[in-house]
């Protein structure tokens, strides 16, 4: 714990055996590693900063209660930059899968930006070739509604971004942040990334696949109650401006985010929001 260079508040490991594991940094409950038979599926920048303050550049970031720029707080909200708690330590289930649960509640820091009570629970289940994420947001306020956007921003580890093919966007409208938020409709059944890409696809189907992950495998993403999908790669010029990202790393990652990115979720007092996503290596 802790060193001159970094303030590491701790990590939690889910180990399924056969070199299949998942590591969560309690800073932001950021999933910083998912290995299947020794093969790393997530990208974390070699320049990522682990100072307990900045969002970790890579892995799976928990974005809440704001996706994107925020007038009253940091971009992508505060959940990815605060310490999370372990609700349930990693436990091996009878079928060999391993699960653990994390949570955060409002603090003086969160209320200084967003003056609401909340409870956010994040359960991860590691299977043989799958990683499942279960998200619950509870509104404990007596009178106030809460509104939020939410995303699991995932940096996937790919050997060559130019060879990735991503399905599940055809016919969807998208907001193109590289073109002053112009709204268009995706015509392609298979999307390839060949330039700076920053899009929010709306009302995407439950399933996406991404080809040419490490060792040529594909990943299948299945999501429930996460209607939108973000797609981001900074490409060459923007990468140069990111201090916690190496210039050439853009070619080894694609960021995909399942969530409620456009229309906020509205929760009345006492209500709960539940959503989930599963990554499967195929
Ligand atoms: O540097 P950050 O705050 O982690 O954001 C990285 C990117 O995250 C993506 O989700 C956004 O769509 C991009 O606009 C943004 O540049």
UniProtKB/TrEMBL annotation:
Pathway: Carbohydrate metabolism; galactose metabolism. It comes from Brassicogethes aeneus (Rape pollen beetle). GO terms for cellular component: cytoplasm. It is an enzyme of class 5 (isomerase). It catalyses: alpha-D-glucose 6-phosphate = beta-D-glucose 6-phosphate; alpha-D-galactose = beta-D-galactose. Mutarotase that catalyzes the interconversion of beta-D-galactose and alpha-D-galactose during galactose metabolism. Beta-D-galactose is metabolized in the liver into glucose 1-phosphate, the primary metabolic fuel, by the action of four enzymes that constitute the Leloir pathway: GALM, GALK1 (galactokinase), GALT (galactose-1-phosphate uridylyltransferase) and GALE (UDP-galactose-4'-epimerase). Involved in the maintenance of the equilibrium between the beta- and alpha-anomers of galactose, therefore ensuring a sufficient supply of the alpha-anomer for GALK1. It comes from the Eukaryota. Its EC number is 5.1.3.15. Keywords: Isomerase. It holds the Pfam family Aldose_epim. This is glucose-6-phosphate 1-epimerase. Substrate binds at residues 57, 75, 80.
